[in-house]
Amino acid sequence: MRFHEIGGPEVLRLDDLDPGEPGPGEARIRVDAIGVNRAEALFRSDRYIEPVKRLPARLGTEAAGVVEAVGSGVTGVREGQAVSVVPAFSQNEYGVYAERAIVPAAALLPRPEGVDAVSGAAVWMPYLTAYGAMVEVGGVRAGDTVVLNAASSSVGLAAIHTAVRAGATPVAVTRTRAKSARLLEEGAAEVIVSDEEDVAERVLALTGGRGAEQVLDAVAGPGVTELGRAVAPGGTLVLWGAQSGQPTPYPGFDLGMPALNIRTYTVLEITRDRERLRRAAAFVSSGLRTGAFRPVVDRLFPLQEIVEAHRHLESNTQVGKIVVTVAR
Questions:
Q1: pLDDT by residue (tens digit) across 248-293?
Q2: Secondary structure letter of residue 256 according to DSSP
Q3: Cis peptide before 126 (omega within 30 of 0)
Q4: Sequence-separated (6 or more) residues with CB below 8 Å from residue 46
Q5: What pairing do the DSSP bridges indicate for beta strands 145-148 and 190-193?
Q6: Does one domain contain both 33 and 96?
Q7: Where along the chain is composition biased (Basic and acidic residues) (predicted)?
């Protein structure tokens, strides 16, 4: 599946191509399931943090399948092995929206026993993202309060589960009440409806005026100043998405220069660092084994309906992951 022009979901087109043979450090996989992510919709519309460099362009960074062939110098995976592809590469170079795809072998993780293809395409990006931001970067501790918006996304749900596992208190922010009950079911200690409530005031009330040690912002834009008010002294505001598509001001001066740490974050900090990825994979795998972590799949689409899958993604009505399956 490629796009030959920049645009909406309708520009996605199924092309018949020879996948070729893997080169040094690469592997070819038979793709069984594909995880659909916001980054791909942004890349397709040329609004991602990395611009589209050439057309037609491939798409997709997360999948599950079986290794068919490996290039020279590849260790750690073998032909016939069930694996997951994690986002660790540029979509200008590789893409997994396909029946077969060549990817860097460094982007492959062996699928744990009992994890099927759909789960293997739905679990890694959300939990690697949440682990990296909250544990590796943020150093979340038991007793901390973690506030997150876009909470019904796959990453938002993984962040809720990760906070619970760390002994922290997850506070979910959602625009309307439609998803509040589901967020509570998934483990949110509190749900703040941003269309009806003052987010910062509610966070301060919930924490006895202290604020949250971590605030995870997937939306960015003008609202970042309001979220900055909700951060505890010495706490961290992590910008890990820009769903608003609007300019994001620096809030420190408007807030009176509090002891506020602000940083950007993407999952590539984890997936492109071998040692960090090893730790993250161990953390997620142990959560899967104990049942603390699980893939939350909103809907399945066949590959031939990838356009509809992207339309559903952009509707923002989903709870959890959208997964595309590849029929044989």
A1: 999 989 999 988 999 999 999 999 999 999 999 999 999 999 999 9
A2: T
A3: no
A4: 6, 52
A5: unpaired
A6: yes
A7: 1-16
